[in-house]
Amino acid sequence: MMALGALFFSIMAALVKLAGQTLPTMEVVLARSLVTGGLSYAVLARRGISIRGREPRLLVARGVLGFFALSCFYFAVIRLPLADATVIQYTNPIFTALIAAVTLKEMLRRSEIILTVASLGGVLLVARPSFLFGGEGAGLDPLGVTAALCGAVFSASAYVMVRRLRREEPMVVVFWFGLMSILMSLPFLAHGSTRLPVGWEWLILLGVGFSTHFGQIFLTRGLQLESAGRATAVGYLQILFAAVWGLLLFGERPDAWTGAGALLIVGCTWLLTRTRKVTPTVAPGGGPPTPGEPEPPPMRPA
Questions:
Q1: Burial 149-188 (b: 16+ CB within 10 A, else e)
Q2: If you placed Cys at 100, which of 7, 205, 228, 241 could pair as Cys (CB 3.0 to 4.6 Å)?
Q3: pLDDT, tens only, 52-83
Q4: Enclosing H/E stretch for 104
Q5: What is the torsion angle, in degrees rounded to the nearest 10, for the CA atoms of residue 15, residue 192, residue 76 and residue 234?
Q6: Measured between alpha carbons, how far is 33 from 38 in angstroms, rounded to an integer?
Q7: pTM to 2 decimals?
Q8: Where are the domains of the chain?
């Protein structure tokens, strides 16, 4: 689930960078939120599920955190090179593990911590952010770097909140994320420069919305099935996908450093997902097991 989410989010990032060349950041955020919010509401209405959820306050909090994480990341993607923005964003598993350890009392085993740190090293090899490695591309926009780091922290907080909402139907969590993003982006647009998209911009914005929608579904389900720190570590795979889109769309050619980092990321991710059996904490439909029914059996990684 987390790997599929990483694929769709990499598509989203590439499309956001394209859209941001001509459209304001908050307009892209609003378009994404309208699509995902509308799709999730349609699914919930068809299935007869209330949008209120079991814990509305936590759903609102998760939506607010998600909005800030999304806005910071989009801002960074538009202002920074795609690889640099993505790798900074993917420091969030470190923050996730720390926040989860404090708020959810989740602890990573020593081997899991080592694999997580090694995976982060692989991410750095793939993207080689200029603020660490220097050389070509040095002098990244400080505002963009700050936004990317803030996005990582907000993302980590949102992931931990999803873990607390593991008894919720995943689509309800996605709906509230979209709803809060719509409500919070409108004031920014009211006081900023906006314009109606034209031509291909409409298709790009729809692509942002649909790719984010599916990415969010897979991410939400993955976080409900696994501890926050370990689940988000699998999201490092987005760096590999970003390298592909960078080559196809922006002419960025991976080199030997990228190959070495990719191997390290894939190897550590593979080991991390197989350190022990995964026991779901929710029923297949996303909610708690029906009273009187047995708990779901342990799942082995596919």
A1: bbbbbbbbbbbbbbbbbbebbbbbbbbbbbbbbbebbeeb
A2: 228
A3: 888 889 999 999 999 999 999 999 988 877 77
A4: none
A5: -60
A6: 8
A7: 0.73
A8: 2-272
